């Protein structure tokens, strides 16, 4: 691993919110706490009288997509060319493309959608690439997950990328965010899609850590925890540890990879990206500061760095048209 640091060491200035906004935020927090208390109580009772039902309800909660306006932002420069593809478990996967040239795939994270990565479109098209973004089942404009509306699974994100990759072909690069980094890395390691370059933005925790946090949040009993883990592994057909990022690229078989992570990311700590980059001999770590988990996808300097890094690599798909990257080692 090598490391570079592109962070601008400035602390964002907090805006003074109107009192009405503060009151609304307070009401939402109180409502969320009440809902969580209800769910905890229900699962505690079911864990005693009907543990299998408790495990099934915990599984449904695990697969429920998160809300939040950050995940629904649309920063596409304009509408692209739409195509609808068949998802392996039924329904449509919606993909959108812009430009012409070697393909670059954009892979959204858990609860996100293709428009969330739209700020990459114009710079990549200007650099001579065809940009392809898609919505996994249950996300964006695609049909619901096999588990129903407002649900999703990692394997369906992976399957959607495979379907889109089969339609558009191998790529010059894959740019993935958050949980999408695991989906992309698993698909690339399994071999149905090939790429020359991989970019992991704010990669996610190992699943043992995510599951432990989930168990603590819901205060699940040990028995219900075991039932939940069993249900998850039955659904994906693998041990959860098979989806951990750090081991996936540890053998050096994945392509040259740029790991971009913000030091103040509150959803996936910077240490996660650092651990992934330490484990992958093909990885370079880039640190930003103050962009968090979502705003990093819209930051012009970060996007420029990623596009230049993709374009600077020798390509078997077409000669690079940009000058070498200006990345410099961090202290």
TrEMBL record:
Q: Which GO terms describe its molecular function?
A: catalytic activity
**Region called Disordered, residue ranges:** 1-26
Query: Sorted alphabetically, which InterPro entries does this protein's record hold?
Result: AB_hydrolase, AB_hydrolase_1, AB_hydrolase_fold
Compositionally biased spans, kind Low complexity: 1-25
AB hydrolase-1 domain location is: 102-295
Q: Note the PANTHER family from the entry.
A: AB HYDROLASE-1 DOMAIN-CONTAINING PROTEIN, HYDROLASE, ALPHA/BETA FOLD FAMILY PROTEIN
What's the protein name? Answer: Pimeloyl-ACP methyl ester carboxylesterase
Native source species: Cellulomonas cellasea
Q: What is the lineage of its organism?
A: Bacteria, Bacillati, Actinomycetota, Actinomycetes, Micrococcales
